[in-house]
Amino acid sequence: MTTETPPDQAGPTLRQKIVLAAAGLLEEGGLEAVSTRAVAARAGVPTPSIFRIFGDKDRLLEEVAEHGFRRYLEIKAELLTGDDPVQALRDAWDLHIRFGLEHPAYYSLVYGQVRPGHTPQAGLRAAADLRRMITRVAAAGRLRMSVERATEVMHSAGVGTILTLISLPDAVRDLRTAHTAREMVIDTLTLAPAEGSDVAPGGTVASSAMALLAALGQDDTTALSPAERSLLQEWLNRLADEVG
Asked: Which one in 14, 40, 65, 242 has a CA-CA gap of 20 to 30 Å to 32?
C-alpha cells in the first residue's frame, strides 16, 4: 500500500522550489526575467501551480524578496547587542549599503518598485529593526528628534544613497558618497556622548523626551492609564520634533 504525502507537508517543498527558481532568474536577469512562465519552466512545474500556491505574481515576489533579505536581516539583528548604540547605527548603515550593492536585484525588488502605500514585508522588517536600534539611541539620551522621525530620515537617506549608487556605472561609483551621507545623517540624528561615557552630557529637550519615552516602553507600570500613556507619548514626540 502506497502512503501519499499529506498536502501540508508537500506544499512547502514545492513552494520553496518555486521561490528558489524565481530567485535564480532575478539574480541572473533582473526583474524583467521573472515571468511566471519562466519561473514555472525553471522550477519544472505547470504555470497554474504558481497561482495556486502564491495567489498572484506579487505574492511570489514578496517571498523572493524575503528569501534574499533573510541573511541580511539576521546580521542586522546582531547589531542590536552592541554596547554603543550610535556605532551600531553606523554599522547598520554600512551593512545596508554593502547588501544593496552586492545584491542589487533583491534590493531593487524591495525598494525600487514603488507602489504608493505598500512596502514589502522584507522592507517592513528592515525598518522595524532600524527603529529598535534608534530607540536604543534614545534610551541613551543621544537622540535629537523623535524615534519615528529619526527612523524615517535614516531609512530615506540610506535607500536614496543605495539606489543612486546602483544606478551609476562601476567606473564612476564612489563609496565615499555613502560614507559622507552616513556621517551627515548620524550628526543630524544624534548627540555626542560625554567623555568616557555612551550617554550625552546634559542633553536637550528632544533627547530627554526620547529617553523618557524609551524608558516608558520598557516599563510595565500601571501608574498611567492606556489613554494617559498614549497622550504622554504624543506630547513627548511633539516636544522632540518641534523643540529639538
From this structure: 14
